[in-house]
Each structure stands twice: as structure tokens, then as C-alpha cells.
Design a protein that fits this description.
alpha/beta, Rossmann fold, 2 domains, 6-stranded parallel beta sheet, 12 strands, 46% helix, globular, binds uridine-5'-diphosphate
């Protein structure tokens, strides 16, 4: 029977798999724990879903733990998230106390697992303060920031920095996000899993089901944005871009597909704004999908002529990678991780405004050959740079680096 790992060889080649096995050898039987704050919804959950079983298969005992808290906790951590991305958020002392208490309660719950771990990866600000309750920890603790932290709002960053500074290392997705910290910082961009339901090739009848399901016309142009209903994803900007492009391309249809992440309390409010901006245009389809609608999202991305990700801030933008893997040109906001993926004029277009996005939509729809070429380049760019096998290789290298660093220190006494 083919192992999970071997099933990737058909896409990446055998050498990549062999290299992962080699890299894992010095780490065999070590214990790794990832901690985040949601099992479903958002990019972190999407990545851990496959990274964890793959690391296990390499002989490294890996667990995924999820912390939980009451509504006020998520309100606080969403504000931290927004502040790291530059919003001037005032977080009340009461909410900060709740943040700390929630981390304390979760630290107690997770004690047996975290105490025996050799490596603990803490994702984003939500569980960051767990470390404060492990003063005598044995393993290496790494803070993994998935957010565009290039220009954080200082008062909130100062608060978080005290905690983040306690970690043995941190990981950011882009060099521009790195912060002045006293420990080693690693740059590791995220990745997609080409074999997940979200990205795997679909049989034609399944791919075309979305036309009926969402009342779309297969003979007309379709643009799609898949994203949580979050202001940084600028769904209203996408509607404005569609409205302007439609004046010149009347047969245009738009799908905004989103769901809610359990750790995102702002979604409902943004969804209301989106519905209001969409008005009664029957060609705008605002979809609220369940968290496990991976094959539906896959099919929508495949049905699109062009995929948009008009974010104004973006840590990475897995939705960009997903679309590029399906050979779609992406029109993306000129920000954060989108810049790493969308190479202007080659794998898509970078834009600053709805007007800019509208112009590129019109351009690509009138240049079908260009659209196909850009789509093909986008796919090979993802194959080279943004698949889970590359991501796993970099995590293994990081763990080895930290391991050797401490052995070296011990030797030096
Ligand atoms: N996603 C999903 N359902 C939705 C909206 C998003 O499954 O309704 C997925 C999307 O396909 C992607 C991830 O959630 O895999 C979002 O990751 P991204 O990095 O684009 O943004 P984040 O939500 O982490 O800010």
C-alpha cells in the first residue's frame, strides 16, 4: 500500500520524498506539538490538517492541540490580530486579563502533553501566552506568526513582545514581517496540500455541479474570491471592482465564497456590509459555506476564469496558492504574502484599488491567450515553491537547527 508520503511523489518526484526521510532521521521518535485556536476555518487549520499526519509518518510523534475560550477571549485575540496588521486597536485591561486567564486555563489542560514535548509550535497570538506558564519547560518553543506583522500597532506589539520574547525562536512568512527579537527568526512561507479535497483534481461532473448548485451560468465569465468575511480581505472592494468591470463585460458573474472561522467574531458584521454592497444584483452570489465545503471551494476555484484576492493586508493568502495551483490567474492586493506569490504580469496582477482590479479583469477576459499562459505559469510557480512538501522540509530543518544549537551550547558549557 502506498504511504501518505509516497502519494506525493507523483507530484513532486521521488527525490523530494527521500530528502524528507533523510532530514527526519535525526529527529526520529521526538515529540512535537502544534497549538492553535481553531480546528476548522482559516489557513492555519488548513495547513495543520496535513502537516501533522505527514510528520507522524516520518517517525516524529506529532500532536495538534486546540485551545478554547469564551467570546471575550476571541474578541481580544481578533483585536490583537488586527493590531498586528496595523489597526489602532485599544484593548481594554479587562480583555487582556481574560486573555491571560484563558491561556492559564489552557496551559493547565495541556500540561501533560506540552511538558513532554521536544518541540512546541504555537500558532499566532491566541495561544502565545501559554509559554508564561511553562517556566521550566524542557522542549524548544517556537512562535509561528501567520499574520502580516510588518507594521504592527506599537502598544499591542509591545504587550505581545514580552511574551513572544520568551520563545526559543519565531517563524514569519516573509522577511518583511520579522520583528526585533532576541532569538533566531526563521522565514518560512506557508503551503498548500495538492492532495487535499481543496486542491485535488475533480471529476468533471463534480466540478460542474457548482453551476446548478449556485445558479451560475457556465457560458458566462465568472470571477471568484474565497475568503472569510473579514475587512482585510476587502470583499466590498471586490464587489466594486466587479461592478466597474461589468459595465464593459456585461456577461460577468461574481461569487464571494466565505464561511466563518470559530475564532473570528467579526464575520457576521462584515457579511451584512457585503450583502448591502451587493444589493439586488442577481449576478453577485454571496455564499456562506460550511467549514468542510472543501470540494465545493475547489470546484468554484476551478469554475472561475479569474480568482481575486483583493486583500489590503495578508499574512500569506492560501486562497491565492489554491487558485494558482488550479492554473488560474490571480488578481491580488499588492500586500504581504500575496506579493510573494503573484509575480506581476507573470502569475497574475497586483492591484491597489477596485479600479485597478476592474481594469485587470477586463484585460484578462479580453486576452484569453494571456489568461491561459499566466495560469500555466502560476501552477508551476506553486509546484516549485508552495507545496506542503517544501513546508515540511523547512520545519524539519528548523527543528534540526534548534536541536544542534542547544547541543552546541551544552558542549560550550
Ligand atoms: N476557506 C474555506 N472556507 C471559506 C473561506 C476560506 O475553507 O469559507 C479556506 C481557504 O480555502 C483557505 C483558508 O481557508 O484554505 C484561508 O486561508 P488564507 O491564508 O487565505 O486566509 P486566512 O483565513 O488564514 O486569513
Amino acid at each position: 500500500m502506498t504511504s501518505l508520503l509516497e502519494s506525493y511523489a507523483a507530484i513532486t518526484g521521488n527525490d523530494v520524498i527521500d530528502q524528507l526521510r533523510q532530514l527526519a532521521k535525526p529527529l526520529l521518535n521526538m515529540k512535537v506539538v502544534h497549538v492553535n485556536s481553531t480546528k476548522v476555518g482559516g489557513g492555519v487549520a488548513e495547513i495543520l490538517e496535513k502537516l501533522v499526519p505527514l510528520t507522524n509518518e516520518l517517525g516524529i510523534e506529532t500532536k495538534w492541540e486546540v485551545i478554547s475560550g469564551e467570546a471575550g477571549f476571541y474578541e481580544c485575540t481578533k483585536s490583537m490580530h488586527n493590531a498586528l496588521q496595523g489597526d489602532k486597536e485599544h484593548i481594554s485591561p479587562q480583555l487582556l486579563t481574560l486573555y491571560e486567564e484563558t491561556n492559564l486555563a489552557n496551559a493547565e489542560k495541556l500540561r501533560s502533553v506540552l511538558d513532554e514535548a521536544d518541540f512546541v509550535f504555537i500558532h499566532d497570538p491566541q495561544p502565545a501566552a501559554l509559554i508564561n506558564h511553562y517556566p521550566n519547560r524542557r522542549g524548544k518553543w517556537i512562535w509561528r506568526c501567520h499574520i502580516d506583522a510588518s507594521h504592527p500597532y506599537r502598544p499591542v506589539w509591545k504587550y505581545l513582545q514580552k511574551t513572544v520574547g520568551c520563545y526559543d525562536a519565531s517563524i514569519f512568512s516573509l522577511p518583511a514581517f520579522a520583528q526585533p527579537l532576541q532569538h533566531p527568526q526563521y522565514i518560512i512561507p506557508p503551503s498548500i496540500d495538492p492532495l487535499s479535497d481543496k486542491n485535488i483534481d475533480l471529476p468533471p461532473e463534480e466540478a460542474s455541479r457548482v453551476y446548478n448548485e449556485f445558479n451560475l451560468d457556465p457560458d458566462r465569465h465568472l470571477i471568484v474570491q474565497v475568503s472569510r468575511y473579514d475587512r482585510f480581505k476587502d470583499p466590498v472592494g471586490v464587489i466594486r471592482a466587479y461592478q466597474q468591470a461589468k459595465k464593459f463585460v456585461p456577461e460577468l458573474q461574481l461569487v464571494l465564497a466565505g464561511g466563518t472561522a470559530t475564532d473570528d467574531p467579526e464575520g457576521a458584521m462584515v457579511l451584512r456590509e457585503v450583502r448591502e454592497a451587493a444589493g439586488d444584483d442577481p449576478d453577485i452570489h454571496v455564499l456562506l459555506l460550511p467549514p468542510d465545503a472543501h470540494r465545493t471551494i475547489n470546484a468554484l476555484q476551478r469554475a472561475a476564469d479569474i480568482v481575486l484576492q483583493k486583500s489590503t493586508k495578508e499574512g500569506f493568502g492560501l486562497t491565492v496558492t489554491e487558485a494558482m495551483w488550479k492554473s488560474k490567474p490571480v488578481i491580488g492586493g499588492d500586500t504581504g504574502g500575496i506579493r510573494l506569490q503573484v509575480v506581476n504580469y507573470h502569475t497574475g496582477f497586483l492591484v491597489h484599488t477596485p479600479e485597478g482590479a476592474a481594469l485587470r479583469i477586463r484585460y484578462l477576459l479580453h486576452q484569453q491567450e494571456m489568461l491561459t499562459q499566466i495560469g500555466a505559469k502560476a501552477k508551476s510557480y506553486v509546484r516549485e515553491n508552495f507545496l506542503i512538501t517544501r513546508h515540511l522540509r523547512e520545519y524539519l530543518t528548523l527543528m534540526m537547527g534548534l536541536q544542534y544549537e542547544s547541543q552546541y551550547r551544552i558542549k560550550l558549557g
